[in-house]
Design a protein that fits this description.
The complex is a heterotetramer, with 1 copy of chain A, 1 copy of chain B and 2 copies of chain C. By secondary structure, chain A is an alpha/beta fold. Chain A has one domain: Rossmann fold, CATH 3.40.50.880. Chain A is 25% helix and 24% strand. Chain A contains 6 helices and 11 strands. In chain A, β10 and β11 form a beta hairpin. Helix content of chain B is 35%, strand content 23%. The longest helix of chain B is centred in the last third of the chain and has 21 residues. Classes of the chains: A alpha/beta, B alpha+beta, C alpha+beta. β2 of chain C pairs antiparallel with β2 of chain D, so a sheet runs across the interface. The structure holds adenosine-5'-diphosphate (ADP) and magnesium ion (MG).
Chain lengths: 224, 730, 79, 79
């Protein structure tokens, strides 16, 4: 499976994402600098977490408008599985590839800790390796993870199976406790928690398999 | 301004004494202009010249075979084999953090990162050692909130995990909080960059952010005592730009992969001035700088301002001739400023050009080697008498108060605001004895801990200095790592007072002795003096940052209890030392007697024994004993493991002394029942006092059949609750 | 020409920062604050001297970058 | 009574956010932005009806909480 990790100025979980992808798929992803928008075709695109452009103005706002996101949007709309974690989720939302917006945490503080997530829809390209309703442990590390969308959008997401993960407790004030959503087609996932930080038993989690690892395995299985 | 006459008032405003001014006249053979005076004042400030501490710092042990570079460079370096090196240092940002806690703390983190990556390392771990005033003090809550947000705001954005630290409260810090930031970086041992400039004619290059009028006179501020009106000196605070710092890290590391750099140095306190003077001095050369070429953020900047500005996120480099274009392309790619601002000369002088004229010309050696050095008078702290320390009225309540009080409560509220996992190698997160960070792509890991017990240092600087070093050594050992070296940040009051100088000298003697005995050299450090407000000094606070190496991180030990039925074993001798203990301070409200004594031979023997148990795979649950003694360690292990304990202690010593005594060189282990006898026998064979206290299990902590009997739930609530409750109370 | 831009949260979007300020003001003893809302404020210094053109360019900047129109409104004034 | 508060960085204080916006606008093809500065904007709804009193109270709020007077200036307008 060929993967690309998009790197923006100031990206800081790009290496973490690449290490996780390689660990699970066995293939090193291509690190794509934001100016290399004609990157080779890949089976999977990942927008890493952390920060980008310092997250000045709004998280993900500058990256979302960068040239390469036009290319990412084109490929994502053509069906390439595209994952945005944390800052990557913010970028996808700011770019309009996913509905809603990520606002300042209700508690106003940066929060870094393990959280428990419920897999709401285990029937997506990113979650097929989980059981529906399964609880997994994945860390969050964000200041702006408070997911907001108007109530019609939220209902549509819930009814359309677009809610992939939900927090089991209130972490940041997100509407309906939403931790991760997909687009209608189900090939774009944005999530605030960091699955790439839970693919290695030494880093914690239940056993390093049922937590973050299964997400990447799901993508891999879908590619075949 | 250039023409301005130098009056005694101006000299005084620059923090220079009349004698020091005479010295400048002698060095120049004429009167300085304002720019030159400004430059002498920062170069000769306490902060840059270490004039009060230098002669004492020279006595610290700094050498061992694994030390690649000791004090004197931007940071110290040790060898961790396999061609890898660790680069680390700790630094204070106390005064700015008191004035503007968010930006003060943030720029403190930024500064220490630059000290480390300027030498060729990728920063891999941040630590922060914080001291605040009494919780009841009106400013404490606001300062704590701002500092923590600032540390996180910078570190999180740059993407370097903040993996640990320490947090103390004491009324002596009411008007002088301490914010000490430490960073550890990883480099290839054969790719280290130093600051000595070389090669007459070689270009001097400025990279990073533009220069503004930030923090002019920050270095002299950091060297002056606080008075009521120094809160007015506000515009000297700088704003940090972690995004630019992140770009600067990547750009510098990319350039370091080429063969272009001769010397590199970050612009820290006193910015352009101190960095160029230090580079020239180390290389024995001169610098000619054209100030018109300095990238400027503001209009009409004067030479004085450009030389003294403390704008952040800037570096100075000397490149090999012909490599300018290659270097410039890299910095442009990262959207950073890049400018050739001068060249190396053989004049031995710092020459400054502005508007086509020479506006400053000073012999480099007069700025560095001729800086004043003082052997300030010092009187030793009088020895105290040992005292009896009373038992509490209610021992259960005393335990709850301590575990759920400001000094021993969980620091979770702090570290959850720090991204402590980014870079995906934090294998022991905050909350344990030492943070453990894996060396990326290997099974090796490093352990880091910062420690000092200021109340011990106040009561007995020598023993306190020893204890600070021993405690980091013990914390690093308790996770199973071999302690290799330390950095330090020496925070003291006004060195012009002999009793304060006595504290500094005493602590340094203690530190030296401990480093020597533990083969734990000092490789870098920082001194912060004049931490006084209206004549009241902080407790002497020599913060020590210790680093150790673990070859096989899968064997790492951690604090939480793991298995029902594990045997709880106490290693090390318990005499019940309660002088200057946390129990005495918090429960009895007293500060009397002598701090616990440290026997370094015992310390080493006990620690080496514990480390071997961990390395052999016999022990995976270990906690050292420090503040709060045995009961505090037991509570930590139970709370974090969500398992109770039943223990019995003898009655030769009063119960409160056994539980709260802070005797040193002790560790609490929880050992698989099948291995317990072996471990105990091995300890006895090694001549180490050892006691089997009881077993892990249940939902309570019980001592001596119920004399102490506390539900784990209550203890956990108290422990986790104090800080969030305090921070949300008005 | 100078442009002043205000970006505020849309009605119905929860404003945690505003809420926190309300609370904190109350804690400081400032009674009588019915509500507080926090927004952003920008000052741009533009080379453009034609008002019409400047306005349309700045509106465009707001839509494309400065505001997130999913949750925010913006308003532009020229000086 | 409504109060509008603007909080801006003091002259000479680095504004990383403004700088980044400047750059981003340039990258989006918006030329001719000489400089961008970012500040904060607050709207308070006050129970107070007396202008004088309201003004003095809001000034006090700014000093004590809303602005960080070490690095920021503030200005208050009443409606
Ligand atoms: N400011 C801080 N930032 C991050 N972690 C902290 C901070 N203060 C304390 N900690 C963490 O809390 C734990 C307990 O600290 P401390 O009581 O000082 O440990 P010890 O007694 O073992 O030296 C440690 O893991 C330490 O790293
Ligand atoms: Mg410890």
């Amino acid at each position: 499976m060929k993967s690309a990790v998009i790197v923006f100025p100031g990206s800081n979980c790009d290496r973490d994402m690449a290490v996780a992808i390689e660990k699970v798929t066995g293939v090193k992803p291509t690190m794509v600098w934001h100016q290399e928008y004609d990157f080779d075709p890949v089976d999977f695109i990942a927008l890493p977490g952390g920060f980008s452009y310092g997250d000045y103005l709004r998280c993900g706002a500058m990256s979302a408008r960068s040239h390469i996101m036009g290319e990412v949007a084109k490929r994502a709309k053509a069906g390439v599985p595209t994952l945005g974690v944390c800052n990557g989720f913010q970028v996808l939302a700011e770019a309009g590839l996913l509905p809603g917006a990520l606002m300042r945490n209700a508690g106003l503080k940066f929060v870094c800790r393990d959280v428990s997530l419920k897999v709401v829809n285990a029937d997506t390209r990113f979650t097929s390796g989980y059981d529906g309703g399964q609880e997994i442990t994945v860390p969050v590390a964000h200041h702006d993870g408070n997911y907001f969308a108007d109530s019609d959008t939220i209902s549509a997401l819930e009814d359309g199976g677009q809610v992939a993960f939900r927090y089991t407790e209130d972490i940041n004030g997100s509407c309906n406790g939403i931790a991760g959503v997909t687009n209608k087609a189900g090939n774009i996932l944005g999530m605030m928690p960091h699955p790439e930080r839970m693919v290695d038993p030494a880093l914690g989690g239940f056993d390093g398999i049922h937590d973050g690892r299964a997400l990447f395995e799901s993508v891999l299985a879908g590619i075949g | 301004m250039l023409e301005q006459e130098i009056t005694p008032e101006i000299v005084k405003e620059h923090g220079l004494s009349a004698q020091e001014y005479q010295r400048i006249l002698g060095a120049l053979g004429r009167a300085p202009n304002m720019t030159e005076l400004g430059i002498y004042s920062v170069m000769w400030s306490e902060h840059c010249s270490y004039k009060s501490s230098k002669i004492h710092l020279k006595k610290l042990p700094t050498e061992r075979p694994w030390v690649i570079c000791g004090p004197g460079e931007n940071a110290g370096i040790i060898d961790i084999e396999d061609g890898q090196a660790l680069i680390f240092k700790m630094e204070s940002h106390n005064h700015p953090s008191y004035i503007e806690p968010y930006q003060g703390a943030a720029t403190g983190v930024g500064g220490i990162l630059r000290d480390v990556f300027t030498m060729g390392a990728r920063p891999i771990a941040n630590m922060n050692a914080l001291r605040f005033g009494a919780p009841e003090h009106a400013k404490t809550r606001h300062l704590l909130a701002g500092v923590v947000e600032g540390v996180g705001g910078y570190g999180n954005c740059v993407g370097v995990p903040t993996v640990g630290g320490e947090t103390n409260f004491d009324e002596s810090y009411n008007g002088n909080i301490l914010v000490n930031a430490m960073n550890v970086g990883l480099a290839d041992a054969n790719k280290i960059f130093y600051s000595a400039a070389a090669g007459v004619g070689n270009p001097v290059v400025y990279v990073g952010s533009k220069t503004g009028r930030d923090g002019i006179h920050g270095a002299t501020m950091a060297s002056a005592e606080f008075t009521e009106d120094s809160e007015e000196k506000r515009p000297t605070v700088q704003v940090g730009d972690p995004f630019t710092e992140k770009l600067l890290i990547e750009a510098c590391l990319e350039l370091m992969d080429t063969d272009a750099i001769i010397a590199i140095q970050d612009m820290g306190a006193a910015g352009l001035t101190s960095s160029s003077v230090e580079m020239a001095s180390k290389g024995g050369v001169g610098f000619l700088l054209d100030l018109d070429k300095v990238p400027q953020r503001e209009e009409n900047m004067l030479p004085y301002e450009m030389c003294l500005s403390e704008s952040q996120e800037r570096m100075l480099m000397v490149l090999k001739p012909g490599h300018e274009a290659e270097a410039e392309a890299i910095f442009r790619k990262w959207e950073l400023d890049f400018a050739v601002i001068g060249e190396i000369t053989d004049s031995g002088h710092l020459e400054l050009q502005f508007g086509g004229e020479i506006v400053g010309d000073m012999p480099i050696n007069s700025l560095v080697d001729d800086a004043p050095e003082y052997d300030r008078p010092h009187v030793p702290t009088p020895k105290r008498q040992a005292v009896e320390v009373a038992a509490p009225d209610d021992i259960n309540q005393a335990i709850l108060d301590l575990i759920g009080g400001p000094h021993l409560c969980s620091r979770r509220w702090i570290w959850e605001q720090y991204d402590h996992m980014v870079m995906a190698d934090t294998i022991q997160r905050p909350g344990g004895d030492a943070a453990v960070v894996r060396i990326h792509g290997t099974e090796k890991a490093i352990a880091i801990s910062t420690d000092v017990t200021p109340r011990y240092c106040y009561a007995d600087p020598f023993e306190g200095g020893k204890q600070a070093v021993a405690e980091t050594w013990r914390n690093v050992t308790a996770v199973g790592a071999l302690p290799l070296a330390i950095t330090n940040c020496l925070n003291f009051g006004n060195p012009e007072r002999p009793e304060i100088m006595g504290q500094l000298v005493g602590c340094l003697q203690g530190i030296s002795e401990a480093c020597e005995a533990l083969d734990y050299p000092v490789i870098s450090g920082n001194v912060s003096l004049y931490n006084e407000t209206n004549g009241t000094a902080i407790l002497p606070t020599p913060a020590i940052g210790g680093v150790g190496l673990m070859k096989d991180s899968s064997k790492m030990a951690t604090v939480p209890f793991k298995r029902d039925g594990d045997v709880i074993i106490l290693l090390g001798e318990t005499k019940g030392e309660l002088g200057v203990s946390l129990y005495q301070k918090q429960i009895l409200g007293l500060d009397e007697g002598c701090p616990p004594s440290i026997d370094l031979t015992t310390e080493r023997r006990n620690g080496d024994f514990v480390r071997a148990l961990i390395e052999n795979g016999q022990v995976d649950t270990c906690h050292d004993l420090s503040d709060g003694g045995l009961i505090a360690a037991l509570a930590d292990m139970a709370i974090s493991g969500k398992m109770g304990a039943v223990i019995t202690v003898g009655d030769l010593i009063p119960l409160h002394a056994v539980l709260f005594g802070e005797d040193q060189a002790r560790y609490l282990l929880a050992v698989d029942a099948s291995l317990a006898e072996t471990v105990i026998n091995e300890a006895m064979d090694a001549g180490i006092p050892v006691a089997k206290l009881g077993t892990v299990g249940g939902d309570k902590i019980t001592v001596n059949d119920g004399v102490v009997n506390i539900a784990l739930d209550d203890l956990t609530k108290a422990h986790e609750g104090w800080m969030p409750n305090y921070m949300t109370a008005e | 020409m100078k442009a002043r831009i205000h970006v505020t949260l849309k009605n119905g979007v929860l404003d945690p920062q505003g809420k926190a300020i309300e609370l904190a003001l109350g804690n400081l003893g400032f009674d009588g604050v019915n509500s507080a809302r926090q927004g952003k404020y920008f000052e741009l210094d533009l080379a453009e001297t034609n008002r019409e053109k400047a306005l349309s360019v700045v509106e465009d900047m707001c839509k494309k970058l400065i505001a997130n129109t999913v949750i925010e409104n913006y308003s532009v004034e020229l000086e």
